[in-house]
Structure formats: structure tokens, C-alpha cells
Amino acid sequence: MAKDKETKETVEETTNAATEEQVVDTAENSDSEVDNDAELEEEVEELTAEEKLQVELAEAKDKYLRLYSEFENFRRRNAKERIELVKTASADLMTDLLPTIDDFERANQANEKQDDVDSLKEGFSLIHNKIYKTLEGKGLKVMETKKGTDFDADLHEAVTQFPVEEKKLKGKIIDTVEKGYYLGDKVIRFAKVVIGS
């Protein structure tokens, strides 16, 4: 019994010593683990900052690509619409001129049987007024180029110069060869004029 007691005490001492060693080892291990955890956290933070930058860069690239493709689509759509507009821009005018063309056809048919010159003149005058009113309704205006007005290179095209006896007509318009026209405020055809020299 005394031997059993001694054996128990020896086992207990050995167990206690082993436990103390484990506690010391565990403490040392936990200190080293704490150091390792701190290092890992720093690495994770560094990677996280790097990863954040990579994520932001990827998002910026994605946004750029989306905006670029959206702009390209807009540009293509706009070009297509412009081409379509150019093709159909004159459709309004053509539709408005069709009745005048019909009047010309009727006048041509009537002229074959007509001997009265005055009625022919009146018919063509009516058609001329109708076509002019139609074009005027679309914004067409005649450029005024009266005899004696100043020559303006922005509005007029000098066809020739002609010597004049009156000094006040030198450098001025003395004749209009071809009328000029505005569409709105824009010159669409310059007036061809003769200038006095």
C-alpha cells in the first residue's frame, strides 16, 4: 500500500511536471501564435488594400468600357439618323411642290390647244406665283440687288465690270445677271452681278 501510494505520488508528480511543461509550451506557443496572427493580419491588411485597388481598377475599367461602347452606339445611331434625315429632308418640299408640277402639266396640255397668248402668260404667271409662295413658305427669300446698291462680297458674285459714265455708280451694282437667295438667314446662292467701273 505504501508502494501504491508512492507510485501514485510519482505519477502525480510526473503528470504535474508534464502539465507544467505543456502550460509553458502552450504559453510560448500562444505568444508565437499571437506574433504570427499579428503578422498575418498585417499581410491581410496589405493584401486587402492591394485587392481594394485592384477591385477599384477593375470597376473603373468596366465603367470606361461601358461608357465607351455607349458612346460608340450613340455615335453610330446619330450618324444613321443624320443620313436618314438627309435622305428625307427634301420630302416635305417635294410633297409641297407636287401640286405645282400638276399645274405645269395641265398648262402644257392646255397650251397645245391654246391660241390666246394673254391667257398663256396669265397661266404661267399664276404657276410662278404658286411655286414662289410654296418656296417662300419653306423659308426661301430673294436677295435684293437693286441698281446702285453697294457691292458686298459676302452676298454678291461679280461676273464682270462695266465702264459707267456716272461717278456715283463706280463700285456699285449696275445690273443683276442672276438673283441670289437666302434660306432663313443663310445665303444659299450668291447674286451674280455686274459692277460699274
From TrEMBL:
Residues 1-38 are annotated as: Disordered. GO terms for cellular component: cytoplasm. Its main location: cytoplasm. Residues 28-38 have a biased composition (Acidic residues). Keywords: Chaperone, Cytoplasm, Stress response. GO terms for biological process: protein folding. It is found in: Cytoplasm. Residues 1-11 have a biased composition (Basic and acidic residues). PROSITE patterns: GRPE. SUPFAM superfamilies: Coiled-coil domain of nucleotide exchange factor GrpE, Head domain of nucleotide exchange factor GrpE. GO terms for molecular function: adenyl-nucleotide exchange factor activity; protein homodimerization activity; protein-folding chaperone binding; unfolded protein binding. Belongs to the GrpE family. Participates actively in the response to hyperosmotic and heat shock by preventing the aggregation of stress-denatured proteins, in association with DnaK and GrpE. It is the nucleotide exchange factor for DnaK and may function as a thermosensor. Unfolded proteins bind initially to DnaJ; upon interaction with the DnaJ-bound protein, DnaK hydrolyzes its bound ATP, resulting in the formation of a stable complex. GrpE releases ADP from DnaK; ATP binding to DnaK triggers the release of the substrate protein, thus completing the reaction cycle. PANTHER family: GRPE PROTEIN (PTHR21237), GRPE PROTEIN HOMOLOG, MITOCHONDRIAL (PTHR21237:SF23). Homodimer. This is Protein GrpE.
